[in-house]
Design goal:
- With about 80 residues, the chain is α+β, with helices and mostly antiparallel strands.
- It has one domain (about 10-75): Ubiquitin-like (UB roll), CATH 3.10.20.
- Helix content is about 30%, strand content about 40%.
- The protein is built from two helices and four strands; from the N terminus they run E-E-E-H-E-H.
- Strands 1, 2, 3 and 4 form a four-stranded mixed beta sheet that branches.
- The longest helix has 17 residues, at about 45-60.
- The protein is elongated, with a radius of gyration of 13 Å.
- The two termini are about 20 Å apart.
- Bound molecules: zinc ion.
- Zinc ion binds near residues 3, 8 and 39.
Length: about 80
């Protein structure tokens, strides 16, 4: 996959996704992604974006200030 920012090759890897919802913070670990070797841009596939949205929705319902979720355990 090519980086959308600079056009360099993005390598497959894992990242930690952080979503700040204002009153709570959702941290999702071990999210599969493509990482640009040049500019460190993170690219998610559409599939992962959808799952992340679902995880954030789920975390919202937990009503905790900080939710730390392992992607590999919920996806
Ligand atoms: Zn790049």
């Amino acid at each position: 996959m090519l980086c959308m920012e600079c056009g360099a090759t993005a390598e497959k890897g894992y990242t930690t996704d952080v979503t700040d919802l204002g009153d709570c913070l959702v941290i999702v670990r071990n999210v599969p992604c493509y990482k640009c070797a040049e500019c460190n841009e993170i690219i998610y596939t559409g599939d992962v974006v959808q799952r992340l949205e679902r995880i954030v929705e789920m975390a919202k319902r937990l009503m905790q200030e900080i939710s730390i979720i392992d992607y590999s355990k919920v996806a």
